[in-house]
Amino acid sequence: MTATLVKEASPPAPSHPDRARRRRLRRRGRIVAVLFVLPALLLLGALVVYPVLFSVGRSLFDASGTRFVGGENYLEMFRDPVTLKAVRNTAIWVVIAPTLLTGLGLILAVLVERIRWATAFKLLLFMPMAVSFLAAGIIFRLAYDDDPDKGVLNAAAVTVHDAFKGSSSYPTARAREGDGADLTKEADGSYVTGADVSPGGTAALGLVGVAPKDLPGEARPAAPAASREAASDEVGGVVYLDFTPGGGGEPGRVDERESGLPGMKVEALRDGRTVASTTTGADGSFRFTGLDGGPHALKLPAENFAPPYQGISWLGPALVTPAIIGAYLWIWTGFAMVLIGAGLAALPRDALEAARMDGANEWQIFRRITVPLLAPVLTVVFVTLVINVMKVFDLVYIIAPGPVQEDATVLATQMWLVSFGGGNDQGMGSALGVLLLLLVVPAMAFNVRRFRRSQR
Questions:
Q1: Which parts of the chain have pLDDT scores under 70?
Q2: Under a CB-based contact definition with an 8 Å cutoff, are residues 57 and 49 in contact?
């Protein structure tokens, strides 16, 4: 019975040779794939994974790296006012720079479509991307210089200011002290005569401190003006440079080679109130007519001696961060414009034409059709710029002068300064690096998710 059952049982089916070969090929393919990917994995581990793990571990030790302090560096980080200022400045960068860049890129991308030389315009705006941050920082450090003779922005500001308001021609002028000087300096910087002048009288107001080479081109000798007498109903005089080139001359007296000071404002005072005002001529002479009888004091207002307008302190504590953001906009506006322009070129034109046929104007088309269709592109550009501004270092470190480096610092510069720029505290620097990584990771994850969603 048993033999019959054994005899009747069918033998096991032999394995198919093609299936075994396919398994061997798959196994071999996996090995080859691992061999191809291994160099990249090793490079990724050496350049990304290991530094991240090392920084996390190093942040748990003190400055010397020998004593374990746990989370003390992280607690100290948020107690340090400079670090808190760096966090605040980083937040300002994250909010303002990507928003402005995305908006500018969108506006320029729409406008470029309507001009004839669109390619040349795009090239011109994209060209700063070819400039390194180091070179851009040096360029803008010079452009923002406080000296109008060096900084182009302050040169422009001074030119515009002087065109509308003017400036003093004699910022260094002052009254001579001693030697019977007749001018007394007031608290506001003006000068007033010590002795009053009645109608029919004259006064010679001598000043020093002006180099002959700095005199206005229209200046003439003051001696003829000093020799003229005033009419019985006038108060006259001369404002002159009480200095004789080459030496000689008598202090307090107008000599033949001494020059008048043109354009000097002179006021007549009665009982401490200004009753008349005039401006000196080319020879420094002035005249007041129609004055009431009685003595009058003469005054040279402080505006005659005001220092010249020097422009705006772009790199001062108040404006240094906006100034650096302006340099960043100059570099990255072309990048945002090109990416948004590529998305704009892919928009369905039939939707735009249909809106125009329905009577929509260009603003309505832009607001209700163009922007909503470009939303995915705008989001990618914005998030990419957010990641980029969190890591900004070069511009801040180069443009901000030493005294205001603290006011402009961001997390990346603070991390470097604490670790290598004099702080020599790699524990705190590593903690700042970990904080920066934690802030960047969500934006990176958001971008990766969007890319995967768009591929599906």
A1: 1-17, 166-167, 178-181, 454-456
A2: no
CATH code 1.10.3720.10 for 80-156+314-424: yes
User: What is the Cα–Cα distance from 287 to 278, expressed in whole angstroms?
Assistant: 7
No. of helices (H) and no. of strands (E), the chain: 18, 9
Tens-digit pLDDT profile for residues 140-175:
999 999 888 889 999 999 888 888 776 677 888 888
Crossing angle for the helix pair 118-126 and 320-345, nearest 10 degrees?
A: 140
For 212-264, strand residue ranges (E) read 234-241
Phi and psi for 287 in degrees, rounded to 5? -145, 135
Domain 174-305 class?
mainly beta
CATH 2.60.40: which residues of the chain? Answer: 174-305
Q: Where do you find CATH 1.10.3720.10 in the chain?
A: 80-156+314-424
Residue with tokens 């390619």: 119
Q: What is the 3-state secondary structure (H, E, C) of 352-416?
A: HHHHHHCCCCHHHHHHHHHHHHCHHHHHHHHHHHHHHHHCCCHHHHHHCCHHHHHHHCCHHHHHH
Hey, which bits of 79-201 come out as E strands?
A: 174-175, 183-185, 191-193
Give 126's Cβ-side CA count (13 Å radius). Answer: 15
Bridge partners, 265 (sequence order): 279
pLDDT in tens, 177-188: 755 457 888 888
pTM of the model: 0.75
Q: Which residues pair with 134 in a beta bridge?
A: none
Side chain identity at residue 204, one-letter code: A
